[in-house]
Write a structure and sequence with these properties.
Blueprint lengths: L5 E7 L3 H12 L4 E4 L12 E3 H6 L12 E4 L7 E3 L4 E3 L2 H14 L3 E3 L4 E7 L2 E6 L3 E9 L7 H4 L6 E15 L5 E6 L6 E9 L2 E8 L8 H15 L2 E15 L5 E2 L2 E3 L14 H20 L6 H8 L3 H16 L2 H10 L5 H9 L5 H13 L3 H5 L5 H13 L6 H14 L5
Parallel strand pairs: 1-2, 1-10, 2-7, 4-12, 10-17
Antiparallel strand pairs: 3-6, 4-5, 8-9, 9-10, 11-14, 11-15, 12-13, 13-14, 16-17
Helix pairs in contact: 1-3, 1-6, 6-7, 8-11, 8-13, 9-11, 13-14
Bound molecules: flavin-adenine dinucleotide (FAD).
The site of flavin-adenine dinucleotide has 38 residues, from helix 1, strand 3, strand 15 and helix 6.
């Protein structure tokens, strides 16, 4: 019987994670096959993405609109206003098609409307069975997103807290400023946040998100809350499209199973402060492709993937988590003060922080220090930082003695346990 063709890399799923890693793996000369159950570009979720990602992946033609103001806002008081043009709504279908075209040009094969069904191991290779055929690979990248079952097929799971999202697209709309994009608008007391994203003349996207799952049973309730928000803000229009889903946040304990690495939503998103995973996937595809090349050339083992993708970030993410936890408890005026405190390093620094672009530990410590320095000792003593974060920092310090920056973590632990600040 004729054996199925062998690829260096088979990528399951052609979302942002799958296509960007296909592009970067193919650019490195690896033989790449992508299998996608739908037509390419049909799985769209993303609303907004960052300018630096658009530039790096040559996606400027997908930008729907540019704003003069992006406001992280609250009804009761302005929080933080980013005057720079840094966040854009994109046509995700177009962006995915462009990424696919670039990947094919670099040598990748992409098969749309061909779903992955199951797999088995054949020596050092993994045999992938799709609806239409069988293919062998040295390494498989699971980029099947939120619904992926690869991890559970090995009886493993990552603990996940969903960020539920629901959005309404309105036409013939008015009552909104077409030049201003509102993010994280905490209009009503509670854990629901709202977004207003103008898309064109008379067209606006309004969304609600929250740190729990969107389910069939709470869907109507969330939509009603979003409609109430729109009515209170005076935004009117006719709903012509809805988009909804969950972004998996939480621990990234399991990153690989034999023959597979997980990338994108299949591996969770580590940052509770960020739902901007489209940008994150594209950025991290560079690291994924470096690992894939090393693995195929026999220079890396599967277990190196976790270190490779996280090592530069783990300490920074942990510090970022502490900051996120603090900021979540701040009143509007304190939040404004805290983010303003980072202004001493310039606008670019604030953008790096808000977008999660810079996860370097030194950067995150600089941000934490700048924030803490803006408050008096009595204000600081009112901030109760979660003990679990302190424990995580301490264990991290013990776990990663080889990371030079880990030294700095000791200072952070000191800072947040009360020894910080000799000011009155
Ligand atoms: C409502 C909503 C709004 C969002 N808004 C934003 C935003 O504004 N900005 C931002 O940066 N991020 C946003 N996100 C997050 C972002 O869209 C996701 O994190 C990102 O799409 C994850 O990419 P991925 O490639 O890992 O997974 P996905 O985009 O889910 O792609 C997975 C792909 O795998 C395919 N697949 C699944 N099973 C199979 C199979 N058996 N065989 C073959 N193919 C398969 C799917 O069809 C899909 O194409 C949003 C998410 C949601 C749910």
């Amino acid at each position: 019987m004729e054996k199925s063709p062998v690829y260096d890399i088979i990528i399951l799923g052609a979302g942002p994670a799958g296509l960007s890693s296909a592009l970067n793996c193919a650019k490195k000369g690896l033989r790449v096959l992508v299998l996608e159950q739908n037509a390419i570009g049909m799985t769209q979720k993303t609303w907004l993405t960052f300018g630096y990602v658009i530039d790096r992946f040559a996606l400027s033609e997908c930008v729907i609109r540019r704003y003069s103001r992006v406001v992280f806002s609250s009804y009761l008081g302005s929080r933080y206003e980013c005057r720079k043009n840094f966040l854009f709504p994109i046509d995700e279908e177009r962006a995915l098609i462009l990424l696919a075209e670039q990947a094919v040009k670099a040598g990748a094969k992409i098969r749309g409307k061909e779903a992955f069904v199951n797999y088995r191991h054949d020596g050092n290779l993994v045999v992938i069975h799709s609806e239409k055929g069988a293919y062998r690979a040295r390494l498989v990248i699971d980029a099947m997103g939120y619904e992926s079952r690869i991890l559970s097929s090995c009886r493993l799971k990552n603990d996940t807290v969903d960020m539920g999202c629901l959005s309404l697209f309105l036409k013939n709309a008015d009552g909104f400023d077409p030049k201003t994009c509102f993010l994280y608008d905490s209009y009503f007391p509670g854990s629901d946040y709202f977004w207003v994203v103008p898309l064109g003349p008379g067209i606006v996207m309004a969304g609600i998100f929250f740190f729990s799952s969107l389910t069939p049973s709470n869907r109507d309730e969330k939509e009603a809350l979003l409609r109430k928000y729109l009515s209170q803000r005076g935004i009117k229009g006719v709903v012509f499209k809805k988009r909804m889903g969950n972004i998996p946040l939480g621990s990234q304990a399991n990153f690989f199973v034999p023959g597979f690495i997980l990338f994108g939503d299949s591996a969770n998103t580590p940052l509770p402060s960020s739902g901007f995973s489209f940008s994150r996937c594209l950025e991290e595809s560079l690291v994924v492709s470096e690992f894939a090349q090393g693995y195929v050339n026999g220079k890396m083992q599967l277990r190196d993937y976790k270190t490779k993708i996280l090592s530069a970030k783990i300490p920074g993410i942990e510090v970022h988590l502490i900051i996120s936890d603090m900021l979540a408890k701040f009143s509007d005026s304190m939040l404004n003060k805290a983010i303003g405190g980072m202004g001493i390093f310039g606008d670019e620094f604030i953008i790096d922080f808000l977008s999660g672009r810079n996860m370097n530990v030194d950067f995150c410590i600089k941000a934490l220090t700048a924030i803490l320095k803006t408050f008096s000792l009595s204000e600081l003593s009112n901030l109760s930082l979660r003990q679990e974060y302190l424990k995580r920092l301490t264990s991290l310090y013990n776990l990663l003695p080889a990371v030079p920056s880990a030294q700095i973590l000791r200072q952070v632990v000191k800072a947040v346990t009360g020894q910080f600040g000799k000011r009155k």
